[in-house]
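Hi again,

Forgot to attach this to my earlier email, sorry! This is the prediction with iron/sulfur cluster bound. I've pasted everything inline since the attachment limit keeps bouncing my files.
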Amino acid sequence: MSQKEIEESLNLLQKDWDVDPILRQFMLGKITDVSDYSIKVKDVIFHIPYLASEKKYILWKCFWPDCHNCCDRQGRLPLTSDDLITIGKGLKYKKTSDFIKNETITTTWQDSSPSGQTTTMTTINLKRKKDETIQEDGTHISCRFLDEKGGCSMHPDRPGVCYLYPFSTWLENEKGMARVHATYQFTGDCPGFYLAEDMQQMKQELKDYSKIIYDYTLSSSRTMRENFGSVSFG
Ligand code: SF4
Ligand code: SF4
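Structure tokens for the complex follow:
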């Protein structure tokens, strides 16, 4: 995401939510004295930004059901092979191939992963509106499964990627073992970030998200191995 897009998202977000001015500066890349605090929680290594000038960590909690901004401004919903089966069934498709044909769109897109690599991904994405086109991929569209009460009509069988936000994950080979890493993605759409001196405040979220992140990342990697998508590093 470009800085301009993040700024536009933040401006929209600030119409409804307070955003700490320091965090706004940080998300716009204007604070550079940032270190990476790594903490292992169960099977995931979380990378939490620490702002040296403030002596504070950037922590996060979700405001749902008061907030559903991520569903209102979803950029893309890549599906794992597990999602293809569960969501296809949930939408009453007998054959996964029919579900893929009618309800998804396959796109190729580039991403700068949190590990610093540029990746080119091809993914099968759930259409966020019935007639979504390839040109709309990556743009903000309110998801068709968001109901009037601000909930997800597919819950609990919503795409794995929806459970992940606002984290972003990657796999690293550690002495032959797959190690899952996670950090935040700062798109400017989530009001849940805050500054705090003590990491302990986010202990529960890290515990809860560790399993979600681990399962999703391995499922996503399996999806690529099963050729329901591809990833290349450049
Ligand atoms: S993850 Fe962020 S944007 Fe999504 S519902 Fe929670 S607080 Fe809102
Ligand atoms: S599928 Fe559900 S959780 Fe995911 S973006 Fe749509 S409404 Fe939100």
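Residues 203-225 form the longest helix (23 residues). The helical segments are 3-13, 21-27, 69-72, 81-90, 96-103, 160-164, 203-225.

That should be everything now.

G.
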